[in-house]
Design goal:
InterPro entries: EmrE-like, YdcZ. The protein has 156 residues and is mostly helical. Helix content is 74%, strand content 0%. It folds into 2 domains: 1-91, no CATH class; 93-139. It has helices spanning 2-27, 30-52, 62-67, 70-88, 94-117, 122-139.
């Protein structure tokens, strides 16, 4: 149950963060908004780290980053992702942007799993196809009925 609540809270904070970043982008620029996003995250992380101490990360060592530079690549991808989302949030409806972000995360995860580990899941591919179909259908305009069952009243 805690995992479900954490997932819901995470989703809500991501959408709220995106909307706040969009508002900030509208009033400044996408690069300023992206910088402030990461600056706020850095300050918050430092405060949490100081408050809770080193006990949160006993397994973390600097050698981990020097022997596996792909870990640092994730940060670069994250900056690009936030920058692009800060631009798109003003142009794309929230539901479409959330679903598109979800789709790209699943597809890129599937691609990385296949490239680095040789794993492929037909079920995940089918699921993402269903989500894509739902996104396309939800973006289609509603058709007007060919005839109306209600006739307008005639005024005398």
């Amino acid at each position: 149950m805690i995992a479900v609540l954490c997932s819901i809270f995470s989703g809500v904070t991501i959408v709220l963060s995106r909307q706040i970043n969009g508002y900030f982008t509208k009033n400044t620029s996408a690069s300023t908004s992206t910088f402030m996003n990461y600056f706020t995250g850095l300050v918050s992380s430092i405060i949490i780290f100081i408050f809770y101490g080193i006990s949160l990360t006993p397994h973390m060592r600097i050698e981990t980053f020097t022997t596996n530079p792909m870990i640092l690549f994730g940060g670069a991808i994250s900056v690009i992702n936030v920058f692009i989302l800060n631009i798109l949030v003003l142009r794309v409806p929230p539901v479409a942007l959330t679903l598109t972000t979800f789709i790209t995360q699943i597809l890129s995860g599937m691609l990385f799993d296949y490239l680095f580990y040789g794993l492929f899941s037909p079920r995940k591919l089918l699921g993402i196809c269903i989500v894509i179909a739902g996104l396309i259908i939800s973006q289609m305009p509603a058709k007007k009925p060919m005839y109306s069952t209600m006739t307008p009243k005639k005024s005398k």
